[in-house]
Amino acid sequence: MAKMLPELKSSGVITRCNGGKPVLSKKDIPYEAECIFNAGVTKYQGKYVMAFRNDYRYDGIGAFGKCVIGLAFSQDGMHWEVQEKPFIKVEDMKDPEITRVYDPRLTVIEDRCYLCFAVDTRHGLRGGIAVTDDFQTIEILSMTVPDNRNMVLFPEKIDGKYVRLERPFPVYSRGGKDRFDIWISKSPDLKYWGESELLMGVEDVPFANDKIGPGAPPVRTEQGWLVLFHTVDLDRTRGKNGWEECWQKRYCAGVALLDLKDPTRIIGMSREPLIAPETEYEVEEGFRTNVIFPGGVVLEEDGTVKIYYGASDTVECLATAKLKDLLALCRPV
Hints:
Elements: E1 15-16, E2 35-44, E3 47-58, E4 64-74, E5 81-82, E6 98-109, E7 112-121, E8 124-132, E9 139-143, E10 148-153, E11 162-168, E12 182-187, E13 194-200, E14 211-214, E15 219-220, E16 225-234, E17 249-258, E18 266-269, H1 280-283, E19 292-299, E20 304-311, E21 315-322, H2 323-329
Antiparallel strand pairs: 1-21, 2-3, 3-4, 4-5, 6-7, 7-8, 8-9, 10-11, 11-12, 12-13, 14-16, 15-16, 16-17, 17-18, 19-20, 20-21
């Protein structure tokens, strides 16, 4: 049985923006929309770019009939102009095996914008990597075998190789239940991946008892790679907590620091959550409450870090912190 965890609080270094309210929700979308969350955000060609997940046509039980990836641009990272049509639909994948596309992450590498995403297929869940230069079309570079998800790319090559964080789903070897960890892999060309190894296990995070996984793409700092990841704790005493009959999990955001030259080495990690569910939008309203999922981090020139996160699998929110404060949280391991 999973060990029950105490009430969790966000770190004091975090400031929720927009009065604690979302920066993007279904009311901002010019086409059919219900849940807007788990967005990837980056700065590209002088603008903020957000690729967001949109689940809609809820079946009243626990699933959505449709899911697309939408696109929005911003001059200040707070106010967003959503494009008139979805950015990526299932049909754009041009693969009859794929039934859903979702959970985008954005990373700029050498002046090109790369997109990590997940797809459901008739034979398992896969992770993909694509590239776009105009946000009109994408070129798919690689797809994993089932089951892999939550992939994020480092924004530069390390020792001549591309690097990504990922979260495989080893159900059989984990006894048929959640117990998923963060892995790291390398590639010479973004197509062929290997040299895979475990980076961080659930047991390494004091505020997780169920699973962990990558969140936002890593950010380079002088001290190391700043990494935001998601954590999950399970408590069987929790009740409905959302639209479904039963939702017993809580998601938080954690922060860690990896070695610049050897990102397989963790040099620091906060022993407490960076962001835990606390506001009305995070604990009282939405599809699945008590969910914080960081998907985008932007480091500004003045040392401010913008953290974009999905709340309750329903809306997209923004918090800020000072880089020096985030680094201070990452105590040596």
